[in-house]
Design goal:
By secondary structure, the chain is an all-alpha fold. It has helices at residues 2-19, 23-28, 36-41, 44-56, 60-70, 82-105.
């Protein structure tokens, strides 16, 4: 239980640092639009970006998603997931292709029915 709380604190702290939003906003009211109050309470370095988001009417959850996708990490323990996801997707696509090719040349056919 302590480990989960620690991870939650780490994640919420990272979201706060990345977006400039208060913890209460993205934990309790994440499906509401960014407001002028959010902009006013944000650290100065986040205000211009938050103002543009507030003007567009974007929701808190959408803003967090965008910010987390465009964030660059400077920590030593950071390892991007994109290469792994790309390799896994390629391996899965290759497996599906091989399975499809094998099923079209087998005796049973693609739908499992037998041919005579």
């Amino acid at each position: 239980m302590r480990r989960t709380r620690h991870r939650t604190r780490l994640h919420t702290g990272r979201i706060e640092a990345t977006t400039g939003l208060r913890r209460e906003r993205f934990l309790d009211e994440f499906t509401t639009p960014i407001t002028a109050e959010d902009v006013a309470q944000a650290p100065p370095e986040h205000r211009a970006r938050l103002q543009a988001v507030a003007d567009s009417g974007r929701l808190v959850c959408g803003y967090i998603n965008q910010a987390s996708l465009t964030e660059t990490s400077t920590s030593d323990g950071f390892a991007p997931a994109a290469p792994f996801v790309g390799a896994l997707t390629g391996a899965r696509a290759a497996a599906i292709t091989v399975a499809w090719l094998a099923s079209t040349t087998c005796q049973a056919g693609c739908d499992g029915s037998t041919t005579s």
